[in-house]
Amino acid sequence: MTKSLKLAIIGGGSSYTPELIEGVLKRLDHLPVTEMHFVDIEAGQHKLDIVAALARRMVEKVGANIEINASLDRRAAIQNADFVMTQFRVGGLQARANDEQIPLKYDVIGQETTGPGGFAKALRTIPVILDICQDIEALAPDAWMLNFTNPAGVVTEAIQKYSRVKTIGLCNVPVSMQMMIAEMMSCPPDQLSLECIGLNHLVWAHRAWIGGQDVTAEVLKKVGDGQNFSMNNIFEEPWDPDFLNALGAIPCPYHRYYYQVDAMLAEEKASALEGGTRAQQVMETEAELFELYSDENLAEKPKQLESRGGAYYSDASLNLVDAIYNDRKTIHVVNVPNNGTISSLDDDAVIECSAVVGSWGVRPLAVGHLSPAITGLIHQVKAYEQLTIEAAVEGSYDKALMALASNPLVPDITRAKAILDDILRTNDDYLPYFSR
Amino acid sequence: MTKSLKLAIIGGGSSYTPELIEGVLKRLDHLPVTEMHFVDIEAGQHKLDIVAALARRMVEKVGANIEINASLDRRAAIQNADFVMTQFRVGGLQARANDEQIPLKYDVIGQETTGPGGFAKALRTIPVILDICQDIEALAPDAWMLNFTNPAGVVTEAIQKYSRVKTIGLCNVPVSMQMMIAEMMSCPPDQLSLECIGLNHLVWAHRAWIGGQDVTAEVLKKVGDGQNFSMNNIFEEPWDPDFLNALGAIPCPYHRYYYQVDAMLAEEKASALEGGTRAQQVMETEAELFELYSDENLAEKPKQLESRGGAYYSDASLNLVDAIYNDRKTIHVVNVPNNGTISSLDDDAVIECSAVVGSWGVRPLAVGHLSPAITGLIHQVKAYEQLTIEAAVEGSYDKALMALASNPLVPDITRAKAILDDILRTNDDYLPYFSR
Amino acid sequence: MTKSLKLAIIGGGSSYTPELIEGVLKRLDHLPVTEMHFVDIEAGQHKLDIVAALARRMVEKVGANIEINASLDRRAAIQNADFVMTQFRVGGLQARANDEQIPLKYDVIGQETTGPGGFAKALRTIPVILDICQDIEALAPDAWMLNFTNPAGVVTEAIQKYSRVKTIGLCNVPVSMQMMIAEMMSCPPDQLSLECIGLNHLVWAHRAWIGGQDVTAEVLKKVGDGQNFSMNNIFEEPWDPDFLNALGAIPCPYHRYYYQVDAMLAEEKASALEGGTRAQQVMETEAELFELYSDENLAEKPKQLESRGGAYYSDASLNLVDAIYNDRKTIHVVNVPNNGTISSLDDDAVIECSAVVGSWGVRPLAVGHLSPAITGLIHQVKAYEQLTIEAAVEGSYDKALMALASNPLVPDITRAKAILDDILRTNDDYLPYFSR
Amino acid sequence: MTKSLKLAIIGGGSSYTPELIEGVLKRLDHLPVTEMHFVDIEAGQHKLDIVAALARRMVEKVGANIEINASLDRRAAIQNADFVMTQFRVGGLQARANDEQIPLKYDVIGQETTGPGGFAKALRTIPVILDICQDIEALAPDAWMLNFTNPAGVVTEAIQKYSRVKTIGLCNVPVSMQMMIAEMMSCPPDQLSLECIGLNHLVWAHRAWIGGQDVTAEVLKKVGDGQNFSMNNIFEEPWDPDFLNALGAIPCPYHRYYYQVDAMLAEEKASALEGGTRAQQVMETEAELFELYSDENLAEKPKQLESRGGAYYSDASLNLVDAIYNDRKTIHVVNVPNNGTISSLDDDAVIECSAVVGSWGVRPLAVGHLSPAITGLIHQVKAYEQLTIEAAVEGSYDKALMALASNPLVPDITRAKAILDDILRTNDDYLPYFSR
């Protein structure tokens, strides 16, 4: 690898970006970053300018030698990049608000990454990301693309199947689980080993170990007893201890949408009546954040960013950069092709799992036997995901309908069809290739 | 094979039995049946007597030379039998009524073979059938067991995994589909070829052929246009043409419980308010039938039996006997171990599929690529089925909870647990090995 | 299907053709053949003329209404054909003689379809057959191609992977096994059921059944006791009874090349010294046959053809035509994609197996568990086959070397390389796309 | 884990043991070994005493606090051990001499771990090691068993399938490859990453990486150019550069027995004529070593041990102890159940592969697509291995015959049977459970 690193950040005007900059600055002794190029679309120019200015102030404050570029020129950003990071949102927060609201009209979970909301996001995102991948193939064919764009598993599988870009999908959920479980077990995070397996936002810590002891049952007991095990942006519906015991694996916070449908739907509906959807709350937070970022005296990541829900986001991605660049061969939880890890699943299906990361890339760890309770749900959701990818790439109404009808959060095909038609209508601008 | 055939019918006092007797009498030129032994439990003595007397009158009328035995002695019935047929119902129609009513209390589909109802039936049935299998292993080890006992797929898989009995699971749904589709295509049933694949009561006619032409799309169009495609005992909610077109495979009538949950649940609730559950209606029909059977002048199957919902039941099982005994190597749709037919599924998972049947047994036909929309649902339901079998065999509350939580008709674990507790309470008498 | 059938026979000038014509004439009541178009290359014009004239006399003799065409115009032959049959030999019998002689120089089995000889034949044949397939795709896209061209399994897999033609690979070995085993068991052939599985010329009758009884052990005992179990064109080295008993499955005659290498190689070397290779013997037989065919008084298949070694060749292919055209759904042993039949093998690997054939095509029968002794060899030979196909299609020396090195009949890579170089030199005219 | 470690060494009287002791003494800062118990059989008492005395002198010299026990009491050695290491040889070097000589009589490779020699060793070893495992299950159920006993892959699979002992199979070949390749690439060993995959003594470095660059082709070029790439105990037949290039993966030294049969067999025969087999040479070396070990002034591992052929043996096993005890999560090449790593192979087939080792055990790394040239040979050899295990456990002549007939080094069943009968006769004393 080169001795200097260029990072390209697609969707650089995101409110999360200061966290990424802070992460880079903390790691300069082992990550020789010399250029960061933030790129965004025209509608994001203003935010991009604010973020770039803050970045320059942050770099200057610590006296680092990093060139900060910000532009609407995606190809310039990608050219010769060592790592391309994606964190954009097609349609912005308004599209997210729609994704959350539409399903609720039909008494179905409205969530930005799972269920019909995640489906709509995937339809909007896949064509754009495949377009970006063509630029990477042409301009930085050896670059690693670290994809944070949600639904991260679906998007990563689309990239793996329809481009030659080296990509790894990433999510902050597994890191958060590591931190929360370590805290409840009163153990340093690096002494807790989680064997994670599943799909993005449907990942189980199949087994938890401390010092060679399997502590899974103990962790489940604590979670069942009500210890904190949620993330900022997910309603913390308590877990039933009997269910956790029967499951025998630690669910991720997002599993509530699959297992505790009634309570989660009720909460979403109540909360939509009160304060609007999660997207609407985020819009307010964002406005406040950009207000802060604009302060010319600010030269560091403001504390308030943490309430935004993206904890460990920067750490997850920069630790991956570190593992690749410095050939660490450390274990990370990532989204990569299955390749036999879950033996009944196709080799090219993207899963989220514990994997060793080094300069040669990512190698999932074998996981052995899984309960049918886990593999059954994985197969069902993967079927939804693969149909969604095909629908997005082919612009096929039929595939889209079967995708939604296969999603376990959509209990009925009549509702599936009504929701699909509503999504297609509402997202008309972003689905030009989509035809009925 | 022997030149004379003994059939043992477990649950011989069933109201369906006259149809079976009629079927045997029709086939005497190629099936040399010389003994039929009907066996039942003490509570069924009265019905058994009525059925046996009718059987004797029917045999006498056609001048056949068949010994009719009826007893409570299961071992005597099984001893040296060539074929053992099972059609019993643990707990009788009252248990079925419970199976249908309990889920409705929790706004969940109440059906005797799918969802929580079928789950309860499996828990009651599996220990009994494995007990019968021990008798067969000891007293008629070469006998073929034809299992009609529902949920037929689950029960057949339990037998395959926990006994050495040669068994084939059987259902009248695929035969009915063959008949209904042939009728709507105005083609003789034997000129229509359906490639059936899936699980019991979750089987698709993956492709339909007439004269070497793939007519699947045409059939789907007719079904979508409202042609009759339901069975006597399932509410005929119309199918959405767009959905059928997107699915690209012909669903079975029971698929309505998975795809059209809202309408089916609404109908069940309405109908429960009006006329009681399906079980209650059946109890009335049965009473009427046995009234008829008792008529000493009756020496044939009464027409009224057909309204009972078991069309083609006798044909399905006796055609199988014929295929085995006479080495026909004809194609039947049966429940047998997968053995690679659906390549992502375990070899020992029982599936329902088109298979060749001869004197050497059953060989499924390879089916090739299936859409994720089909395999996803199969994996999810098979996970439920396998957990159910383990729960029944081990008497495990945890496995039972995970089974119900994995069933796609049970949308939420809180309801899953409430339903499970209700089922265990209500079926206490039939689940002696079950412990919490 | 149409009410009249056109057959196109590629390599129509073969000495086997009269058998095919006889087969057609025997089946006219259920196969309405109205046209047979024999096509060959320029070098075969003379033989083609002789065969066509004989065909016309045979047709006339029975008063059939079949148009006999013979030409060098492949496209005319294929145009609108219902079935295309291939039986050509690239390079003719001289190429076969080379295939048999080259390996012997290196102390390796020299055989026209297995080992290095079959490899050379595959390299010559695959480009030609894929070219033919392009014509079929364009001119008769609904036609079935019945491929007899050896190595039939390799060639069929190449067609399946690199064209869209509907094809079935066919061989007379399984039919011959059926006949020989029936004879030794003194049972009518149609009452013997063989479950065949493996690869072409590496096929086992995994189990043999008569009247529902597994008679595999009995058959093995008879074969071990020296009963005739060979084919005209394979040296009848006796089988060791202990080995057969340990194997527990009935090997095909060609298995001798894999299991009895020493004896087969010794015989080949002795026989090459005496009477020349098998190809040289066949050339003499052929010359005699064409002498006979030229007789203007001959209007039927001459008896002498039977000594040519292609017994049942015509029956095997015309029974397949019958099964497809008349939707017989009968069981045949054919070469088709695996699709889960051998569960550890890729779905698109072509295997030779018992399968049901009807108007919708071919569906292999599930076979269940196989001994590692069988699957190990299948995997090894399939690896050789797949590398051979890739070598032929890509013209890759590396793939060709790995193919030969992976063939179990080639015990050493130094010899593999020497043989490969010899084959490439000798077959230079037929391997234009092949580069080093 | 405990704060003090007990090691049990089965076959403690081996001439290798001083290397192990040295390895322990080097690692005392992070491996708190407080007891080593060497155990051997009665015939080995003399050697055991010599080794134990040397061990005590070595421990004393560095002032370590380690209790050295030596006894014939296997149960005492195993009781409460943390790690059990096996390095015994049933039948001693005389049995090895037989293993090497018998096959040569039939013109077949005679080698102690592959081919018929390894087969004979497996038959002798498996019953003994399963007996040891019963002791471990009873007396040290949490202990890790590190199995060096050859054939290590076969023996490890037998343990995995027929006991509940936690075991890892180990070999010094992959470590040696790492060292040799690093040397030829002039790179520190820890900067070279090999992705190893295959079976024991049939392992390929599928890909080699330095600093994120795939250097496989470069390594192959150097090996083809004649750079040292062999081990002390294997004849260094040069590799053909064209073959290596076509293979595209780095073979292990033992691959010469499969790929370069002619040269290896010729060398073995020549060498047997001259200096006796390898076993006979080793006997001499051993006698010299024990002479040295007996010297009461010796208190360290003598340099001469290195010529014995077991380079890195101690490092390989103690690095594994370290990785487990200290939860290093480092990558080692070990023999463990496949679990999807090679997707066409059974989950419970033991493979040799790169894997992460931590306090929770071993997790293989996914390896992705492999060439058929690799998987074909793996399947063939695994078939041999699995039949060998079944033969050993069941004492089955039939399975033994099929095992040998399936071994690619045995080209013919007549020879397979002759060799088998010779092996059974010669090893009569060690195969009490074996019956014909």
Automatic annotation (TrEMBL), chains A, B, C, D:
Keywords: Cobalt, Glycosidase, Hydrolase, Iron, Manganese, Metal-binding, NAD, Nickel. CDD domains: GH4_P_beta_glucosidase (cd05296). One of its GO terms (biological process) is carbohydrate metabolic process. Its cofactor is NAD(+). Substrate binds at R96, N150. Binds 1 NAD(+) per subunit. The record marks E112 as: Increases basicity of active site Tyr. Mn(2+) binds at C171, H201. The keyword Iron applies. The keyword Manganese applies. Residues 196-410 form the Glycosyl hydrolase family 4 C-terminal domain. One of its GO terms (molecular function) is oxidoreductase activity, acting on the CH-OH group of donors, NAD or NADP as acceptor. Belongs to the glycosyl hydrolase 4 family. This is 6-phospho-beta-glucosidase. It comes from Photobacterium lutimaris.
